[in-house]
TrEMBL record:
Gene3D superfamilies: 1.10.8.590, 3.40.1280.10. Homodimer. Its EC number is 2.1.1.200. One of its GO terms (molecular function) is tRNA (cytidine(32)/uridine(32)-2'-O)-methyltransferase activity. It is found in: Cytoplasm. It comes from Thiothrix fructosivorans. The gene is trmJ. This is tRNA (cytidine/uridine-2'-O-)-methyltransferase TrmJ.
Amino acid sequence: MYTPALENLRIVMVETSHPGNIGSAARAMKVMGIKDLRLVSPRKPFSQETFALASGANDIIEQAKIVPTLQDALADCQIVIGASARSERTLQWPQMDARECGTFVAEHLPQQQKIALVFGRERTGLTNEELDHCNTLVHIPMAFDFLSLNIAMAIQVLTYECSTAVRMATPTEAGIADADEALASGEAMEGFYTHLEQSMIDTRFLDPENPRLLMRRMRRLFGRAGVTVSEMNILRGMLAAFAGRKFRERS
Ligand code: SAH
């Protein structure tokens, strides 16, 4: 599933200590269809572990831009969201949870705004000065406030929420496929019942002089089933095929 709007979503990692975490982060991004990675002064160069943990996301690592300061990483971004391991309700910065962040990103990406998700150092997170660059913060609620997620796992959770929300908001090929899974309209159901009734009369299964409750029962049965658009196509095709066979039998 490729969602073009996600090209405007950037992941920024500030002064990451472990080269392996950069590889894991690249993998987390790649599986969610996000490519733009900026590394602010990583503490160590890429290592074997980086590429081992990237596991198929080497292209993200190779394209990643290394910049000296956070400002450099954010220069062309309109919206900056800082990921914080702590719940910052007491501070001045507005804070969202992971799901709200996805919705927020899905609302703003289609307007061609570049959005950065900023992640802090493994040990100390983001400084207050760095938080000042963020329009808003996001915190993934955890069972224990004194713990934090591994940085690549935090990236996985947030990129999942963003890509899911963007996909649901954008009419994509997946969206078109889903349209087949929508329930058949009332009009389509009525067309089907007429077709079904006629087929049953034609085959003398139903006597129009003495219909009893057959059609009502059929309506109850198919109404309970929640027939989808694609299932309706099968049912109509089936009735047509039965009629075709009957026609051939007669001739
Ligand atoms: N002791 C540090 C933990 C940093 S974890 C601190 O208190 O800030 C490294 C980075 O992973 C964090 O800076 C943050 O960007 C991200 N992260 C970890 N847990 C997170 C969570 N629950 N919600 C959002 N981001 C999280």
